[in-house]
Amino acid sequence: AIRPDGAATDHGREMAALGLHPRLSHMILKAVPLGLGSLACETAVLLSERDLISRPFAGGHSRAEADFRLRVEALHGQGPSAADEGARRRLLEEAGKLKKLAGCAHARDRAPLEALDSCGLLVALAYPDRIGRRRERGKYLLSSGRGAALAPDQALAAAEWIAAADVEDAGAESRIRLAAPLSVQEWLAHFPDAVSEEAAVIWDSGAKAVRARVRRRLGAILLDESPMPNPPADKIAAA
Q: What ranges make up the beta strands (E) of the chain?
């Protein structure tokens, strides 16, 4: 949004014109060329307001499901959980104004309910520090390096990758209150620069040998590692 001297970039000026939290403005601007502008505007409105379906499901869990996609469905009067009709209409009206302001090209835009699988991508655009990879059911390592958890009885707790929109930062492991499943392949296809690569040349005391590996990371999350071809001789000697 800003240059090193503090002046606004073109992207920053466009963000400011939307009048939203910077994370949400950035998300919308990045989503429009992907054909996800309408869904992004609805996502921004839903994340700016009180949870549309904060009440628990009747006869179900002791808490509302954390899956953000259910909020988009509820906004359109669909899905397993009903929303207050007055709140639903008001949020749809706000989203409509935002779509006009953002210049969403409706002819190219995917309908929000048809693009539900991209909710995780949009949440990750707003909160790239809250991309999470599952360590065990319901427990995630976030790209920021923090641990976070969903209640094990949440359906979303089985997802390999998530993007968390609402996290209660308390204690060693934060509680995830709202998230969406994320296709990490889709994220990396659109934003390959999010991945960093590091070379590690270390001494393996057990094998009595030098190990040279190339590791790819998404923030603090290790994506994969592979043998490093022809590691530098000085790195080997140092190890």
A: 131-136, 139-142, 147-149, 161-168, 173-181, 195-204, 209-218, 221-227
> Residue 180's Cα: distance from chain center in Å?
7
- Please provide the size of the chain in residues: 239
Strand 173-181 and strand 147-149: pairing?
Answer: parallel
The token pair at 196 is 């960093």
Q: How far apart are CA 89 and CA 91, in angstroms?
A: 5
Beta strand 209-218 pairing with 221-227? antiparallel
CA angle 70, 32, 220 (to 5 degrees): 70
The highest-confidence range among 57-71, 80-94, 205-219, by mean pLDDT, is 205-219
| Three-class DSSP category at 233 | helix
Which of the 8 DSSP states describes residue 7? P
pLDDT tens per residue across span 209-235: 999 999 999 999 999 999 998 889 999
Q: Are 141 and 133 in contact (CB under 8 A)?
A: yes
Phi, psi values for residue 36, rounded to 5°: -120, 20
pLDDT bin (cut points 50, 70, 90) of residue 103 is: confident
Which residues touch 101 (CB under 8 Å, ≥6 apart)?
17, 18
What is the structure's pLDDT at 62?
A: 45
pTM assigned to the model = 0.88
